[in-house]
Amino acid sequence: MTDTAPVGIVAASGGLPLKLAAELQSRGRAVYIVSLDGMADADYSGHDHDSIRIGALSRIIDALKTRGCREIVLAGKFVRPRIATSFPDALASKIMVKLFTRGDNAALEMLAEVLAGHGMTIIDKGEILGNHRAGEGVLAGAEPRDEAMVSINHARHVLETMSDFDIGQAVLVQGQRVIAIEAAEGTDMMLERCAGLIDPDLAPAVLVKMMKSAQSRHLDPPVIGCLTIEKAALAGVSVVAVETGGVLIADLDETLRMAEARGISLIGVGRS
Amino acid sequence: MTDTAPVGIVAASGGLPLKLAAELQSRGRAVYIVSLDGMADADYSGHDHDSIRIGALSRIIDALKTRGCREIVLAGKFVRPRIATSFPDALASKIMVKLFTRGDNAALEMLAEVLAGHGMTIIDKGEILGNHRAGEGVLAGAEPRDEAMVSINHARHVLETMSDFDIGQAVLVQGQRVIAIEAAEGTDMMLERCAGLIDPDLAPAVLVKMMKSAQSRHLDPPVIGCLTIEKAALAGVSVVAVETGGVLIADLDETLRMAEARGISLIGVGRS
To answer: Are residues A198 and A171 in the same domain?
Structure first.
């Protein structure tokens, strides 16, 4: 990234967009931030930025183009907008319909295509932040027992079978019993409902998170971090397995420390 | 059922066991109730009954045999017991391990086998209560729009694909986007998390419930009733599709009335 053009950051809620801006600036890159009106909640006054509502997608693209941005980062917690209340322009409507009818990945790919048509590329925030692609084998905690490996294999089989439907990035298994499958609710919410469904006296409860086969590694990589480990521990999970090379680990050192502290084995596994 | 031996009712929580007992007695059948200690919460004092804890499965079977029961009904809301706190005997341990490692259906089949070895058969409570197997076509409400049929077909495909894993009896779809998949949490809890994930301004949200391919029609048929319709309506679902001949509808008239009142199309569909 020796580009002199600013990186365009499209900012949803939370502190991640500011963290990205700081990281990019520390590498000598300028940034221009479009904070999504009604969603972005951090203070962007210290940065070159404009606040634009998500429904005005053509205006967002114009603003990024006017600043000469060629690399775009989508950052922050993105709350799926309601069509009726976001007054989408023609372009936003098309992408929202895709989002709601075909899933995140299809919508993101369509957005990437539109941006590409304007000479802009979505770049990987994980790489900027130094997130780590999970390595192979035991990353933290004890070597999982044999019965945990049986559960991991079962979970992989479930995930791979469902992967074509653009669902099931994560699954929670105890023995060969599937406790929960993630669809639109996200891994955290899935973990929250599992506490009462796991019997802590039986085989280890195993969370497995992998890429969906249709998922773009680049646009929307699966990520785990401290919060995932914390929620897994609260639910009674003892093994977290993530796809080697596919799932990103945010704040690697802290996440590994957290896994050790909570008695969770964190391991990297390949596809079956 | 011209048998003079009492029907054995193994009673978990809620009022269903009493309802079954009344229904059987109105047909001239005697009943003997084993109320599960710590789970059964209705008043069985008016009936020939014993209270036995679920972990003492051999004692339960002995009690049923002693009364001469040859037909057994499992009734009420069964809360999955924890192994450590239910002090299971050898037989209960075997079945609980099956339950937790292989799922409900495998455990039920093992229990049915054990009972068969003692000359006892599990009979269908749905038939006793006059539950109706869902018929084909529109059962209540308006004919679903074409886009709802597309969603139903997508959901059927998802359910049939996952069916071999003994999971996914129900799935909620909007457009071709899978909002939620049921695993161990049950249809009601699944519906509860969907409200925030459905956009009411888009394609109709569709709940589809089918048999799992491994599911025993006899031992543990999928059932919907007024509560399902109520929860679906609260979540923003506008079409409920159930497998014709596979899913039971409890309290048929009341459930159909509820669907009409809540503006939900209830339809019976075959496998794809």
So the answer is: yes
